[in-house]
Amino acid sequence: MCVVDIDNPSQTFRRPISADSAIMNPVNNIIALKAGRNLQVFNLEVKAKVTSCNAPEDIQYWRWITPFDLALVGENSVYHWSIEGTSGPVKQFDRHSSLNGTQIISYRANKKMNWMALIGISAPQGRVVGSMQLFNKERGVSQPIEAHAAEFAEITLEGAPQPTQVFVFANRGVSGAKLTVVEIDHAEGNPAFPKKSAELVFPAEAVNDFPVAMQASLKYGIVYLVTKFGFIHIHDLETSQGIFNNRISGDTVFTTTKHNNGIIGINRKGQVLSVSLNEEQAVPYILSTSHNIDLAFRLATRANLPGAEGLYAQRFESLMQAGQYNEAAKLAARSPQGILRTEQTISRFKGLGAVPGQLSPILQYFATILETGELNRLESIELARPVLASNRKQLLEKWLKEDKLECSEELGDIVYQHDPVLALSIYLRANVPPKVVLCFAQAGHFDKIIQYCQKVNYQPDWVLLLQQVTRADPDKAKDFATSLVNQSPPLIDIEKAVNVLMGQNLVQQTTAFLLDALKDNLEKHAHLQTKLLEMNLLHAPQVADAILGNNMFTHFDRPYIAQLCEKAGLYQRALELYEDLDDIKRVAVHTEVLGVDWLVNYFGNLSVNDSLTVLREMLRHNQKQNLQVVVQVATKYQEQLGAQRLVELFEEFRCSEGLYYFLSSVVNITRDPAV
Question: Which domain of life is it from (predicted)?
Answer without folding.
Answer: Eukaryota
